[in-house]
Amino acid sequence: MSQQNTETTDYANSPESAVSLRSRVEDFYELTKPRLSLLSVITAIVGYLAADPSRNLSVIFSLLIGTSLAAGGAAALNQWLEHQADANMVRTKDRPIPAGRVAPLHAFVYGLCLSVIGCFVLYTGANLLAGTLAAATIASYVLLYTPLKRLTTWNTLVGAIPGALPPLIGWAAAEGRISTLGWILFAILFLWQMPHFFAIAWTHRKDYAQGGFVMLSNADANGRKVAIQAFAFCLALVISTLLPVILGYASWFYGAVATLGGIYILRPSIAFLKEGNRDTAARKLFFASIFYLPALLIPLVLDLWLL
Prior knowledge:
14 helices; Four Helix Bundle (Hemerythrin (Met), subunit A); 307 residues; mainly alpha; Tetracycline Repressor, domain 2; flat
């Protein structure tokens, strides 16, 4: 064996090579925005379990894999489209593409493959409607929400649509159609995202402006407009969470949880309305929204199983 081949073999077996491979895998994993994708997977499972308490493990497995791949693919395509803007923002400049660790073309191919495979898994493992809704989620996220972020403040409202579609994917996987309760879950997820996103937009308003994104917070010097909209959507959210009880799908147990949860999420949204340190209020609203969602959805699923 030549010296060059020996050196190549030695490098391939070296600790440096293992570290490089691990870093490469981590970069592509980061492209999928794992925390955001996990939310899509969880809410898809919630939609499935709410529609079908019998819990078909084969369909659940396909739903897990398909939704994970589709959500990760959409996230990768989103980062591919936004990598130049990400390079201008403090919170995103170290993402794999703007940091130069992943080539834009590689990210595009990776995201496209994940998206196609994810939709195919849902189509074959669940049904056509579930696969179609996954494709609609990817398309609306990548082709509508992402470019609109540079054009209009309505992007937040549009972006909440793909974020609210995963429960419908789960519901479709269970029933092959969307029932009334499925649409209520869609409404809850849609409305929940608005105060959640407004809190983020206000906290990172300078970063968004630097990246060239058109957000309501960029043109709101004291944050009052953002706070009013966050409160209005919180109020609508609380009302929507009571619909399962009002329409007879859930019992008083879930109704009590939804009422307490409503008080919990409204308090920081009211604090956000007040003049003063809105930065602190926005952060409290953001963290409250994170704890609020699972605290609401888990009791709802349990209630539907026991009703």
